User: Fold this.
Amino acid sequence: MMSQSAIALLRDDAPDGLPEGTEWPGPDTLVLLRRECRGGTDRRALSRFGDDRWILTPAVFEAHTKAVSLNFRPVPAPWRLEVKYYVWQLLNLPRTRSMRNSRGERISPLTVSIVFPQLKAFVRWLHQQQATSFAQVTPAHLDRYLDDLRDAKISLGLRYRRVGEVRRLWAHREILPPFMRLPSTPPWNGEDPRDLFKKVRPQMENRTPRIDERVMQTLLVWALRFVEDFATDIMSAHAEHTRLHALSPELIRRPAGQQKRGGYLPGQLRRAVIDYLDKLRTDGGHLPGHLSNDGKLQIDWRHIERLFVCSAEIRRNGTGRLIIESGLPIDSDIPLDVSVTGLLEGSPWRSSAIGYHEAPRLARLLSTACFIVIAYLSGARPGEVLSLRRSCLRKDPETGMLLMGGLYYKNAVDADGNKIPQGAERADPWVVVAPVARAIEVLEELHSSELLFPTYIESYRRPTTRLGTARDVQSAAEDITDFTQWINAYCNRSERAEAIPDDRHGTLAPSRFRRTLAWFIRRRPRGLVAAAIQYGHVHVQMLQGYAGSYDSGFPDEYAFEDWLYRMETLAEDERALAAGEHVSGPVADTYRHRVTGAHRTFAGRVLTSTAQSRDLLGNPLLQIHHGPGMTCVLNPATAACQLRGTADDPLVTPDIEDCRPNCRCLVRTDRDIAYVEQQVTELEETVSNPLAPPIRHAREQHELARLQAILDAHHEGRKPTR
Assistant:
């Protein structure tokens, strides 16, 4: 039986009680009526309200997103119209109603598609309760829904989101007709989800896991090899592949009146084929081939037609018989006439020419290697990297820094706080290192697309399922998997012990790069990446550009890794002090105070956001930094080194590489002294060597005396005073 609300919705005119200013769509009303669409969109082809699938892709400007749509067919039939009217309002309101903990900006079509499944889940539940309209929902319904969510075997985060969609529906009740409104009382009396579920979402525990150290190092080393050593060969092969493909029979247009491809004079094609076969015999070459459907190796006549720009008639005439009866071996691929010049540790990286069919895959692998280098070493978000365009790289004439510009989408809002769908040009570019610049240069030479990471590299292939022409994040993740598999197969064939290990967390998704980079910068600041790239250098470069601004999100990633690292070292310091470790130096008492105070304050503390870790790092109790043979109890006002960052920045750190012996911030623990004693042992061997040059002997003798004074002062302080 049809409900009164459904009958009201089926009328052509607006329903009774429609609030003033609320638009009411008809069956032919555009779904994206009040939304800006991509340039070139045919608005006549846009989805209409009466359709059961709404295509939202034209209003999604991020070039790296997949097709976006809303499917209303799974919505129970009695509810479908009501849900469509509500969602249409979400899409077309000039400003959506604000909710708790939201900024109140207009919800984007992409966000609508993301939250839509949670709305459908609520409606399906209501349908099971025999309700047919939002106006029939009572507080008792909502309490039962909450109880079912508590018992459901779903994540706490999903429970939060489903509660959030009920709140969003209630927040928009005033723009809906009375028969579509939830009760006037806020759902669950406005209680926060953490109180409703008696749990806080473990945001920091469920963060995207970082990539294992050995996995990331090996992955990056191979990506750099592709970009720096193999790129020239792959680009040349891909260019030749593209040239030959353009000669495919179906792509060649015959001049008016010409009956055959190529326009050969009598006997001319035969002589060209004879010359071709003679060259193959001289060079030890192979005829182009491919595997048939039954697995047999046979001549690739389509490629023969490309080479000679001739028709398929060659397969059946005497000229073709010359090829068949030549006795030349057939290759399952088609070696391209491109030399291999790239070297791997002094030897050619491959022993054979790149094949015609192999070239596109190698080009894709090269593009993936460029993505790994750019995304990982710049700290940019995956979507921002995938949206990069030609000429995004420039060199600052005054500083010599390499700057990478582009669009950003997250937090891109207009003066009213509404999201700018087409993104905004960032005011501060990324400051990048040389390998990132090289990767960009390679991409600009590899293909002709305006986007650096198009869906397809080959110009003759174009996406048809979506308007966005950039690779999407999921495809990038799949490409990294393919890159890893190719590398491991290559290592297996060449018996190289440099395969990329499996990561215990599974797929090497691009979303894991930023946290991994933050970990390496914090834990391995002097660790060699490859070709003299050091994470310390990457850190300095990044913090001078967009990645160093808090809008980028990277400082929060780094702060979280810094927080974890300091908590680990704090626990180790506290255990050592409790076990009687001796500490010497001008601020030894300050060190003891900070360690015990920080342990009391922060041990076991749970963080709920990365921004919280950044704020906490500014606490003076946490300003303890360990270096080789020394510990810095940092006071930015008295530190003798060149600080990394400004004195008022919570992420400021001392430059351990620039530590000054006369600094008033230094202390030495027994663990530091063990390191110094090892240095003393090594220097004593050098000093005792009679063959050491006099200048070196004097220098090492001076250093030995300095270190011995440090040891004496430390051990002297251990003696009880009388």
